[in-house]
Amino acid sequence: xxxxxxxxxxxxxxxxxxxxxxxxxxxxxxxxxxxxxxxxxxxxxxxxxxxxxxxxxxxxxxxxxxxxxxxxxxxxxxxxxxxxxxxxxxxxxxxxxxxxxxxxxxxxxxxxxxxxxxxxxxxxxxxxxxxxxxxxxxxxxxxxxxxxxxxxxxxxxxxxxxxxxxxxxxxxxxxxxxxxxxxxxxxxxxxxxxxxxxxxxxxxxxxxxxxxxxxxxxxxxxxxxxxxxxxxxxxxxxxxxxxxxxxxxxxxxxxxxxxxxxxxxxxxxxxxxxxxxxxxxxxxxxxxxxxxxxxxxxxxxxxxxxxxxxxxxxxxxxxxxxxxxxxxxxxxxxxxxxxxxxxxxxxxxxxxxxxxxxxxxxxxxxxxxxxxxxxxxxxxxxxxxxxxxxxxxxxxxxxxxxxxxxxxx
Amino acid sequence: xxxxxxxxxxxxxxxxxxxxxxxxxxxxxxxxxxxxxxxxxxxxxxxxxxxxxxxxxxxxxxxxxxxxxxxxxxxxxxxxxxxxxxxxxxxxxxxxxxxxxxxxxxxxxxxxxxxxxxxxxxxxxxxxxxxxxxxxxxxxxxxxxxxxxxxxxxxxxxxxxxxxxxxxxxxxxxxxxxxxxxxxxxxxxxxxxxxxxxxxxxxxxxxxxxxxxxxxxxxxxxxxxxxxxxxxxxxxxxxxxxxxxxxxxxxxxxxxxxxxxxxxxxxxxxxxxxxxxxxxxxxxxxxxxxxxxxxxxxxxxxxxxxxxxxxxxxxxxxxxxxxxxxxxxxxxxxxxxxxxxxxxxxxxxxxxxxxxxxxxxxxxxxxxxxxxxxxxxxxxxxxxxxxxxxxxxxxxxxxxxxxxxxxxx
Lengths: 409, 409
Fold this sequence. Notes:
The structure is a homodimer.
Chain A: E1 10-16, H1 22-31, E2 48-54, E3 58-64, H2 72-88, E4 91-97, H3 104-115, E5 120-125, H4 134-142, E6 147-149, H5 155-170, E7 188-192, H6 206-217, E8 221-225, H7 230-235, E9 243-246, H8 251-257, E10 263-266, H9 267-274, H10 278-286, E11 296-301, H11 312-325, E12 330-335, E13 348-351, H12 359-371, E14 376-378, H13 379-386, H14 390-394, H15 402-408
Parallel strand pairs in A: 1-3, 1-4, 4-5, 5-6, 7-8, 7-9, 9-10, 11-12, 11-13, 13-14
Antiparallel strand pairs in A: 2-3
Helix pairs in contact in A: 11-13
């Protein structure tokens, strides 16, 4: 049951040149485990992902990448994909051939690891055939990268690498609980979860599911309803819920029906807050007020999903923004693992809730936007803003983002 | 977002001899779709699964199998796995080489398809190189199997095959809604969802998730709580819930705390009922009363998961049954796709909730047990029975299974 969302998995990526032994290492790390639960095969250009439980770390995903010395046109594409992996990597395993001499490519790659302060282990492979080259050892030592020597075909070597990964992973700071300071033990929360046509058959979408779980983990209770039964649900409760959490798309209606003395926020605001992005996202949403004819807006989704006729990213958001800023607005879209490196020319970026992206990847995206001075927000924040209820939706976190709320009011 | 559970997907399996073009067909059917969401690579012996949305059918999984003419020891193992796939197949695509002459293997395979009344299409491949053999056409016509001729490398041929699959799938009777006749529009249900250590991090286990969704789909409302807050949750409701649905493991406590005038059942009873298995499963549970020293009990799980120290299948159930029938009981376990063909010697079979198996597979298993006169039940039903609350848990479905309840009372 491979049910842990990608965004919650610790990402361990395997880098190195072609034939350094990356795939052998990948197989060694994942195959011997009875707990390998899925095996997502790459196409010719895509990295290979294997999700598993790595105890005691928990859910991880190993990523096998194309060699960063790949050649030709296809090679260039593969290298680009490998660099995209780097953005979401929590731990890098750099596989080196014992006989390899350091060159510009390796040097540049290690430099990039260092610039990102990425936890890293160099795996010097094929040491049964030859001693590690002196140049390699010298480079690793000057870059202060720990290394380990052996052969990726030997289980004991695999075991030592796993130990190193486990040690690195266990020092990682966990994200704070989703509802920290918002829902306390014994509280009663009320969730409003519309079922729209994009929801997978027979299931709850990820953010709703994660919130339900977070409430139970907080030792609290909840009522759950679609938006059409909100009033009835409120009436059926003998105690007032401490907070109402709604899907952003039902914001206006839910806000109107929820008494003013009950706190109200949205799933996407909670998730942005958990990821430490609340403040910049609020600031980004306010940028919608400054949009004018000729401005170009970039809309980004972290996964590819079926477009619905009332699709939020391609239909609703453009409509709302045009209502605000007129018909002269232009829109561009990006989805999946793609995020433009050059954001020149965009007046603002509106990102989906990013349930399929991990925190490193989202930080990279926000960082890229910040460096290029392009305001960036997410769907939920933008919707709350265009519906005029951002101040109310942010009230539960007032102290955390004092300045932005004042600017808004 | 590959979130539709396997058990809810329409299973389309591709069968045929080695080199008939099965994988080419698989790729053709899945690759051209932007909606291919996962790609589970097989090992040397396992079939390959590709999940995707096949509109307008919905979520499907294509399964590429090993040739049923595979040879050698490994070949025999692969054929066995292929036959296991047959048990859960909703639609069979039989790929044939145009130049192939019918032989015993093909004849036997088609006979099996017919015995199972399995919807089926023969795909005569490689027709760009040769006309279909007369023997092949004759066999298909005598078996009344529709066929289609072309080349699996041609998109138009793939398109025609897809149409045929869509047409077959759209005539399939859907399972009744999970809560049919149990939860009505405007009802308030109460779910008790303990979070045990086996639950995936940050998520809800599948049956709970599906039940939450089913309640929303029924246009009803719900309260959700862990077992420790049940009393508080009941107190916080101004109206009485029409039904309490609990995880089987908390049955005794929940039954004690839920007023007698509120209906009570479990997630597993609901799912067994939806699959039309309630009656035989109840009967199977009652077989526990007849267990005695020397009897052998088979415990089956549909997936492999981490064993916990208080694991239900390996620890709790054996303990409960020994409390009933003494230390002389023997236990055997099966998990994953395995289910013994020969059940001789087992006094009863206890199956997990089977959220990862589809209905055809479960029917096959129950059928096998029935044919060999071995009573079969599931975890939830057994737990309710050993805790003495089966009559109460079945009360919501009293009319559907009158005889069994009377026998129990």
